[in-house]
Amino acid sequence: MKFNTKMTKIHCRKQAELFKAESQDVDIDAVNKVTAQDFEDAANEEYSKFKFGNLETDADKKGDKTSTERCLQRHLVLVTQRKLGNDSKTLLPQGHWQEGETLRQTAERIVKEQIGSELQIKFISNAPCGFYKYKYPSEMNGKVGAKIFFYYANYKSGNPTKSKVNWLTRKELDEMLPQKYSNAVKEFLIEETY
Amino acid sequence: MSILRQFSRLSICPTVKFQLNRNISTTSALTFKITEQLWAEPMKKKKKIDPAIVKAREERRRKKIEKQIRRLEKNARQLKPIDELEVPLHLMDSLKKYKRPPVQLSVEEIEARELLQKEWARYKRDEYMNNIAQVDRIMAAQRRALDRLYEESEDLYNEAIMPDLQLLPYTISGPVATPPIKDYESPDGEYIDVSKKWDN
Asked: Where is the signal peptide (chain B) (predicted)?
């Protein structure tokens, strides 16, 4: 079955043809009104003139990694610089657990201290989603190494204030994070297929 | 003579012409007179009706008709049950115009479509398996993390597996094909949602 707009277009075309042939039974009103074809043409023209928002934002063009407005189609992860021993590495924000805290409260505190309380995030669950352990190069404070539990949180709004922060895509995560650390992080993140 | 004329009024067919009769008599004449023949009742005198009453009558008549119109419209506003609905007549009349001829496909076209469907099925199956594998991987990572946490300290583990009641209802929105334009003035104005909301 043909639908109604198609029928009005056919009707208008027939009327126009009849008008040309100058036969008697022409509905002059139907021909003088804006035909369905005209309306469609006007709509198409408006669509071609309209400028959509650009997917490539300014941050993309500059290669600025500190803003969240880059790579709007991709999932970005927040990383900071951290000094471990002599060199500074790019890691997810991490810190020590204190007595009397749950792990999730530790995570919230670390974000507030290292990134600033302006950044609004929403934690998904009380349970950690990833695990990583590494050995200190030399014994510190009687401890051999550290165990890191990762918590997943979604960014809501706000800007980081306290330290320089980068938002990285999966590929950049692969490049910038240390090898084994990056493997542990990739386990709980959804893989990018394009 | 005049009596005859008077009686002639009873007759139906037209009779005598008018004759001017002047009767002269020396004695008192005996004249008979019959009353005028009345084929109908004489017209009753038209009484002047109060215009207010006339207007009131007209009003009443109009109100009655309006009430009937309103009742009919109310009937039309109620929705008919689906079993009573019929195809509208203008569609029935123009049924011929709306019908399309059935599509004839060539054998190659049909085969190509079949092969395309199979490829699509394969692609979708791979996508589905990948999704399941990813979900499994993420869940396994969490499980491993929780196991390590249990080895570390049981208290922390118990606190970690408590459900988070502040989480739901939770919404996040994903990427869009074109990002929203900053400070865009919509030509049709702002969209205010006036749909009714029901809560428990």
From this structure: none
pTM for this structure? 0.66
ipTM of the complex: 0.79
Interior angle at CA B102, CA B97 and CA B106, nearest 5 = 145
Q: In this structure, what are the phi and psi dihedrals at residue A122, rounded to the nearest 5 degrees? A: -125, 120
B155–chain A nearest CA distance, Å: 9
Which of A55, A73, A131 is facing B148, going by the closest CB pair? Answer: A131
A 27-46 residues with CB < 8 A to B: none
Q: Which of B98, B144, B164 faces A126 most closely, judged by CB atoms?
A: B164
Give the domain ranges of chain A: 4-49, 58-188
A58-188: CATH number: 3.90.79.10
How far apart CA A153 and CA A124 sit, in angstroms, is 6
CA distance linking residue A146 with residue A151, whole number of Å: 16
Task: Indicate yes or no: CB of B178 within 8 angstroms of CB of A73.
Answer: no
Kindly determine whether residue A190 and residue B97, on different chains, have CB atoms separated by under 8 Å: no
Please report, as a single letter, which amino acid is at residue A77: V
Ramachandran region of residue B99, left (φ > 0), alpha (ψ -120 to 50) or beta? beta
Per-residue pLDDT of chain B (200 residues; tens, 9 = 90+): 566 666 676 666 665 566 677 778 788 777 777 777 778 887 888 888 889 999 999 999 999 999 999 999 988 888 888 998 888 888 888 777 778 888 999 999 999 999 999 999 999 999 999 999 999 999 999 999 999 999 989 999 999 999 989 888 898 888 888 888 888 888 888 888 889 988 87
A84 sits in which H/E element: strand A77-84
A132: three-class secondary structure by DSSP: strand
CA distance B111 to B83: 42
